[in-house]
Amino acid sequence: MKTHTVPFRRKREGKTNYQKRLKILLSSKPRLVVRKSLGNVSAQIVEYSEKGDKIIATVTGKELKKFGWNYSIKNTCSAYLIGLLVAKKANEKGIKEAVLDIGLNKSVPGSKIYAVLKGAVDSGLKVPHSEEVLPSEDRISGKHIEEYAKKLGESSNAKFSGYVKNGVNPMEITKTFNEVKNKIIGG
To answer: What's the first-to-final CA gap in the chain, in angstroms?
Structure first.
């Protein structure tokens, strides 16, 4: 008679890759957990505990509004700012290094996940990574959005209606990005 072992529920549901998780946990360092959804990006600093993971710091895109960011919270610029802010919170709690945990997300160089990583690294958090996966400075600062809006000219209001509704100009995203970045670093 054959016995059948039922895998863990989270593995069956495709929510956790336990082999990958074990490799990350063996480092004995806190994890920089980055998750993205269709409308938001979030980052957490998480420490392993036998009773359950302990969240040290967490940031979502909605927190950027406190710093004056009224642009989209799901683009590369906001992902970088989220990384900057979560690393600042981690530094305040004595966390100086971490390991990146992207979960079941695909590793795509230059993506929002790596923008969060770049923000965290620029804020002083030590995370092992390769420079090739990080997005370019122009992409992080929103210069590509600004150039596209300038190229569209007057018709940019239709394309950037969400920005217009929030009362922001897509042609000033780089300026606003730098102001918010300075507020996060300084304040």
So the answer is: 66
